[in-house]
Design goal:
Structural class: mainly alpha
Number of helices: 7
Pfam families: ICMT
Helix content: 55-70%
CATH topology of the domain at 64-205: Four Helix Bundle (Hemerythrin (Met), subunit A)
EC number: 2.1.1.100
GO biological process, one term: methylation
Function: Catalyzes the post-translational methylation of isoprenylated C-terminal cysteine residues.
Organism: Motacilla alba (White wagtail)
Number of strands: 0
């Protein structure tokens, strides 16, 4: 099953690459296909390097949630419909380039966060502290408390800027913001339980990294 998923992502990346290098009207969608397949494949790869004990089929994040799959489908539908009725909207190369840069920045930041955290990183919020669990505050964690979420946030919005999908840009921004606000609050309750005053001090010094999200309001 792992090989099937990896081959599927490789095939999608190859198709995207073929669309990208040509002068087809679908060139920007090719950029998107490459970005999407590379994101999911690298999620599994970095998890395998960092934390092989937590590795599973879910590490590809292909079945992240129903909402995630629905959002992806919505972006494909919007792109196709707008390409049919407003083809000039899909030919704004400078805007797609901005989106591609957002995608690259977001994915690089997320992977840097995963690599910096090492075995402390897990796709699932942990409710029990393991013996090797430490509070990571160096590297990109010195910039933001939640760099992996910051990266994913801008990556997701960037994919829609890349596709020149105005409706999904707004929808992704709102949905992602709400998801990460709730996820950060849930995670920070656990981190305060694990590390107490050490995490509260870190929280006071370093921002969450996401706009208008301060994290859980809780003091010891």
């Amino acid at each position: 099953q792992i090989a099937v998923r990896a081959c599927f992502l490789g095939f999608a990346f190859g198709c995207g690459l073929l669309l990208s290098v040509g002068r087809s009207a679908w060139r920007h969608f090719g950029w998107y296909m490459c970005s999407l397949s590379l994101f999911h494949y690298s999620e599994y790869l970095v998890t395998a390097i960092n934390n092989p004990r937590s590795l599973s089929l879910d590490s590809f994040l292909l079945n992240h949630s129903f909402e995630y799959n629905l959002a992806a489908l919505s972006s494909w539908v919007e792109f196709t419909l707008e390409k049919l009725f407003f083809p000039e909207l899909k030919q704004i190369t400078w805007l797609s380039t901005v989106g591609l840069l957002m995608v690259i920045f977001g994915d690089c930041l997320r992977k840097a966060a995963m690599l910096t955290a090492g075995s402390n990183f897990n796709h699932i919020v942990q409710n029990e502290k393991s013996d090797t669990h430490t509070l990571v505050t160096s590297g990109v964690y010195g910039w933001f408390r939640h760099p992996s979420y910051v990266g994913w946030f801008y990556w997701s919005i960037g994919t829609q800027v890349l596709l020149c999908n105005p409706i999904c840009v707004v929808g992704y921004a709102l949905a992602s913001w709400r998801f990460f606000r709730e996820r950060i609050e849930e995670e920070e309750i656990t981190l305060i339980h694990f590390f107490g005053e050490e995490y509260l001090e870190y929280k006071r010094k370093v921002p969450s990294g996401l706009p208008f999200i301060k994290g859980v309001k809780l003091e010891l």
